[in-house]
Every structure is written in C-alpha cells, then in structure tokens.
Amino acid sequence: MLPFSFATTAQILCETGASRRLAELCRERGAQRVLIVTDPGITKLGLLAEVLPGFISAGMTVQVYDQVLADPPEAIVLNAVAQAKALKAELIVGFGGGSSMDVAKLVALLAHPDCQQTLQDLYGVGNAKGQRLPLIQVPTTAGTGSEVTPVAIVTTGATTKLGVVSPLLLPDLALLDADLTLGLPPAVTAATGIDAMVHAIEAYTSALKKNPLSDLLAREALRLLAANLDEAVHNGGNREARQAMLLGACLAGQAFANAPVAAVHALAYPLGGHFHIPHGLSNALVLPHVLGFNASVAAPLYAELAPLVLGDSLRAGSAMDQTEQFILALADFSERSGLPTRLRDAGVPQAMLQQLAADAMLQQRLLVNNPREMTEEHALAIYQVAY
C-alpha cells in the first residue's frame, strides 16, 4: 500500500429538518454573533424562514449576507468579509450551493480578528496561515461537496479563476438537511447530481492520490447517487431520495478532497468561464467523452464502478465492454433528466473549441490527476466529439 494522508470535516450531521436547529448548533460552539453567507435565490425562496427565528429566540445576533453570485468574484468575498468584521462575527455559516460555501470559507479566514493576510495572499496550495472563525456549512444542493473540501474557487478576471487550498478551509460541521433541497428544479437536481457522480468517478481513478479511504467513499457515493438521482429529479418531494443524494454528494466530496479530480473538471472549467454554463452541466457535457478517452488506460477501474450504476442490468464481458456500458449509462442520466447533451445545445459556438482546448491546458493541477496523459490536441478532439 502506498502512503497516504486523509483529512475531512470534523463533524457531519445528516438529518432531515436539522437546519431548524442551526442557532442551537452555533451556540454550542460558543457563538453569540453569527453571519450567514448565502445568495439572493435562497432569500427569495424563503429557505432561511425557519432558520432565523431560532437565533432571535436564543437571544443571539444574526445577520445575512445574501449577495453571493455563481462563480463569485473577489469583490463578493471582500464585501462579505467587511460585513463579518463590522458585525464582529464569532461564527460563519455557509448556506447554499458551492459558491456560498466557498465564500463562507474565505470569510471565516479573513474575518478572524488576528488575520494578517489578504485574499491575494491565500491563492494557491497551503498559503493560508493562522486561524479562522468557527465555520458551519449547510448545502442546499446535492452536488459540489464543498462542505467537506479544503478548496474555495474565486473568479479573478473575465474568464479566469484561482483556488485557495488549505486544511483551514475544512469546516467544523457539515449539516445535511434534505428539506432544504425539496424545491430544487429538476434540471438543477440533475446537473448537481451528475457533478457529484463525476467527483466520485474521478476520485476513484485519480492518478496521484487514489487511496483505500477515498475509494470506499467514492464507491458508496456513486451507489447512492446512481440509485436516487432519477427519483430526486422526477419526484423532487421524496425526502429519502433527497437525503440520500445529499449524503452521496458529501461522500464524493470527501473522496475527491483527498484524491483530486482530473480531466472532466479541467475541460468543464473553460465552459463555465466563457459561457457561464453551470458547473454541473459543464461536467455532464464532457463526461462521457473524457471517460471514453481515458478508457484505454482506466477501463479496469471503470469496470469496477459499473455495477454500482448499472446493477443487475450490467452484462457480462471484458473490462472494456463493461466500461462502454458504464459510459452509456452515465450519458443516459443526462438524457433522461432533460439536460442538453451537446455543446452546441448549451450555446457553445464551434469557433471557440480551439480556445477552450487551450484554456483546459491551463488546468494542470487537475490534469496531472488524470489516468491518461492529455494534450491540447486531445482536448480539442474531445470538445469536437462533444460538440
């Protein structure tokens, strides 16, 4: 066995309805002043309506910063930090999708009274120093796994993003409550669910840091996600399916936080950067084609995952035969869920494919994890097939 290191969120609470006890959970951590970081959609949907009264009845001070955007720019992070400092916040809650949770991680670092660093100082791996404020993450989509990852992504230019990677970003508590996901539209449920499946698949085949713990988590994540995605998409009020999806996304997050993702994400990021295609959909658009590219090397591993997705419908055959069935089954999830399956259907112009391939090559921190080496020519060919 190769040596490995594994780190994750200190505590996970997986309980339908648990978000109504958020104030109590904050008070248990000694906090009287709390900032909740979220987005305008959460406020509009009223998802905090049953959460905020608990703070008032407990005599606590709570404020909401609800201006987080998808692919949050630096200004959003800095504005949230300013509000946290003005409040003298003692605990930060990330409440929403991956963007809100990513911003919350950075606020918890930068709003700590002893912090001497700027946002610019944090970019890269292991550059965050010192302490952070206590941090609770409450996902409202079953996708990113950000509640258990030591990574925050910030938009730094028109089409560029940078990441902050540090164990300090792992929260004290991840709270998984299916009630918060009941109102998710089918397309969002599908895209975020496929995003989580990609996390599990890429962690299981990660070239550099694949390890026994990440493998266990990735397999169970994929089993839960594959078994419950159709039900969550087509019968969104099913709490059991929704809770299973949240747990699956969380387990996949734990897996890829320790055995990082690879070329699917590397090719998905430019689609989000240039065309603001949601991250989950970007992954879904390139997923079958990247797996097909990797199959010559990774077929034995994909064949190990195939039964978790196909169950009894998996036909006997070679590793490559079962890999082909696996790839088709994953593509079928998008088809059944009504997601676009071609780049052209998602508004990507053919003339941009060369630029996308060049941009994908900038994601070397991801590409080094891919089981098969990928060049710019390979990336272009994948985009062309996906078009």
Summarize the structure.
The chain is of the alpha/beta class and 387 residues long. Helix content is 51%, strand content 11%.
Structure explained in plain terms:
- It is a single chain.
- By secondary structure, the protein is of the alpha/beta class.
- The longest helix has 32 residues, at 279-310.
- A six-stranded parallel sheet has the order 1-9-6-4-2-3.
- The mean pLDDT is 97.
- It has 15 helices and nine strands.
- The protein has two domains: 11-180, Rossmann fold; 182-386, Dehydroquinate synthase-like, alpha domain, CATH 1.20.1090.
List the helices and strands and how they pair.
Elements: E1 11-14, H1 22-28, E2 33-37, H2 40-45, H3 52-57, E3 61-65, H4 74-87, E4 91-96, H5 98-110, H6 119-122, E5 124-125, E6 135-139, E7 151-155, E8 161-165, E9 173-176, H7 186-204, H8 212-234, H9 239-258, H10 263-275, H11 279-310, H12 319-337, H13 353-360, H14 364-367, H15 376-386
Parallel strand pairs: 1-9, 2-3, 2-4, 4-6, 5-8, 6-9
Antiparallel strand pairs: 7-8
Helix pairs in contact: 4-5, 7-8, 7-9, 7-11, 7-12, 8-9, 8-11, 10-11, 10-13, 11-12, 11-15, 13-15
